[in-house]
């Protein structure tokens, strides 16, 4: 049975780097039967055999179904384990107040590079976890992993089917749900963490969705100068997380 904390990556160079990293648990290596021999492909196969990693061969069509990216998979995919990834439904019962924990939810952050950099920023803080939906999970591509600088393997990632539903469940547990909105009248500079809270970061083009805004019981803004209207989502994540932890978290 395949563990629930498995993601699939693709591409020869990313997989070669992953297989050489003994700290990363690899579930299975997938190869297209149409692959032609190459130095890097032989290196990957030999490294996989040394680590006793299961190797399976597929038709080109089957491999593209596994990788979800036929144009860029280069005839190879790999199932890897994220050791700290779990279902939000399993984690939610453990959340309680008056603990001053804080988590982040990503609402519509799908660009792989932004996703990876956001995960890196949040993992570097004392944030207690990152909530993403199953659709966003599919964007944890080699580009996202590279942008995270490997921090994704150290991140507490909680997966849900729908972020809005997960936030509603969090509210039922008496957690504050706080949306980061540029038009909020409440500055993060004045915020003090007093109870377990879940902060929501939106898509940097459209921001927080209306549905999530209606669920949130508070909003915050990051004050900006010189007529700058917005920050990259990863920068917003870093600013918010470090200001929150300095306000009294943990």
Write down the overall geometry: elongated
Determine the strand fraction and express it as a percent band: 15-25%
Main-sheet strand order equals: 5-8-7-6-10-9-11
Low-confidence stretches: none
Structural key phrases:
elongated, single chain, 7-stranded parallel beta sheet, 250 residues, 4-stranded mixed beta sheet, 34% helix, alpha/beta
Structural notes for this entry:
A seven-stranded parallel sheet has the order 5-8-7-6-10-9-11, with helices on both faces. Strands 1-4-2-3 form a four-stranded mixed sheet. The model has no long low-confidence stretch (mean pLDDT 90). Helix 1 runs parallel beside helix 2 (39-50) and helix 5 runs parallel beside helix 10. The protein is an alpha/beta fold and 250 residues long. Strand 2 (26-32), helix 2 (39-50) and strand 3 form a beta-alpha-beta unit. The chain has helices spanning 12-20, 39-50, 60-67, 88-91, 112-123, 134-137, 142-147, 163-172, 210-215, 233-246; strands spanning 6-10, 26-32, 54-58, 76-81, 86-87, 102-107, 130-133, 157-160, 176-180, 197-202, 218-220.
Give a concise summary:
The chain is built from ten helices and eleven strands. It is elongated, with a radius of gyration of 20 Å.
Give the topology, please:
Layout (H helix, E strand, L loop, with lengths): L5 E5 L1 H9 L5 E7 L6 H12 L3 E5 L1 H8 L8 E6 L4 E2 H4 L10 E6 L4 H12 L6 E4 H4 L4 H6 L9 E4 L2 H10 L3 E5 L16 E6 L7 H6 L2 E3 L12 H14 L4
């Amino acid at each position: 049975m395949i563990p629930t904390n498995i993601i699939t990556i693709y591409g020869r160079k990313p997989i070669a780097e992953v297989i050489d990293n003994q700290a990363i648990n690899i579930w299975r290596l997938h190869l297209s039967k149409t692959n032609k021999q190459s130095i890097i492909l032989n290196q990957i196969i030999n490294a996989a055999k040394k680590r006793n990693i299961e190797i399976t061969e597929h038709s080109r069509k089957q491999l593209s179904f596994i990788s979800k990216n036929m144009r860029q998979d280069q005839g190879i995919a790999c199932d890897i384990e994220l050791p700290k990834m779990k279902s939000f439904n399993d984690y939610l019962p453990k959340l309680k107040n008056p603990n001053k924990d804080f988590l982040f939810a990503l609402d519509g952050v799908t660009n792989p590079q932004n996703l990876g950099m956001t995960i890196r920023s949040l993992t570097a803080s004392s944030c207690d976890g990152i909530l993403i939906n199953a659709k966003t999970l599919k964007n944890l591509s080699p580009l996202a992993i590279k942008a995270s600088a490997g921090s994704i393997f150290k991140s507490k990632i909680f997966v849900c089917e729908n972020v809005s539903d997960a936030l509603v469940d969090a509210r039922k547990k008496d957690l504050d749900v706080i949306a980061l909105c540029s038009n909020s009248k409440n500055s993060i500079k004045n915020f003090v963490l007093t109870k377990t809270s879940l902060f929501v970061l939106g898509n940097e083009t459209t921001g927080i969705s209306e549905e999530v805004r209606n669920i949130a019981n508070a909003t915050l803004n990051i004050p900006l100068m010189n007529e700058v209207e917005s920050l990259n989502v990863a920068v917003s994540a870093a600013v918010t997380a470090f200001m929150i932890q300095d306000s009294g978290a943990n």
